[in-house]
Amino acid sequence: MSTKQSRRRPVVRLLAPGAVCAAAGPYALWIRPRLLTWGATGDEIGRAFPGDELFPVADGSSVMATTLPAPPGKVWPWLVQMGYDRAGWYNRLDRYGIPSADRVVPEWQHLTAGQRLTATPDGRSWFTVALLEPQRTLVLRSDLDLASGRSFVPGRDPLPRAYMTGIWGFHLRPAPRGGTRLVVRTRGRGRPRWLTRPFGVLLGEPAHAVMQIRQFHNLRGRVGGEDRPESPDADR
Predict the structure, then answer these.
(1) Three-class SS string for the chain?
(2) Which residue in 146, 193, 198, 231 has a CA-CA distance of 20 to 30 Å to 71?
């Protein structure tokens, strides 16, 4: 090894952490807050939502929102039929590339509190319907054992050593000109915190933001286009 190369190594070792810190600053101060509140108004960001009481102390939360071109009564059937083995999540990223339903399916319109909605192809993980108020509120809860990748039932199963648990809430309110204001609220926690917190901030939150924005886009196309043929690339 040349003397020049040996001198270069310490410089690289110093520059790499510096580059990470330089990128982390703008992300934490500017990008991350916008990801966590995409589309939401100040009032929506500051208010409490049904389901928040399930996690009075949370490691992280987000409020994202959009306006859909249909009244709550037309939006609700699309939300009720969500699930991996049902209509999907209106986002191919959440369903491993499989397109979601492009119509309201009558046999998927029955949903009750406590019902499980499969989240993965093997059925090992699921969402549980935690709260349900027709045409207003749908709160789904996830309790995931990180070691096995399986869901667990709080209060019945032993608490895993590493887990993430939280809610994914959909809240509908009438909007001007016959539309619907759809506010999506997430809130949750994980343990051990030294593992789940960095993972959530660096990977979980950005991934959720991308998937949620895509879901908003695809729902907007569906509820606003029920009377016209579905575009073949509407669910991307």
Answers:
(1) CCHHHHHHHHHHHHHHHHHHHHHHHHHHHHHHHHHHCCCCCHHHHHCCCCCHHHCCCCCEEEEEEEEECCCHHHHHHHHHCCECCCCECCCHHHHCCCCCCCCCCHHHCCCCCCCEEECCCCCCCEEEEEEEECCCEEEEEEEEECCCCCECCCCCCCCCCCEEEEEEEEEEEEEHHHEEEEEEEEEEEEECHHHHHHHHHHHHHHHHHHHHHHHHHHHHHHHCCCCCCCCCCCCC
(2) 231
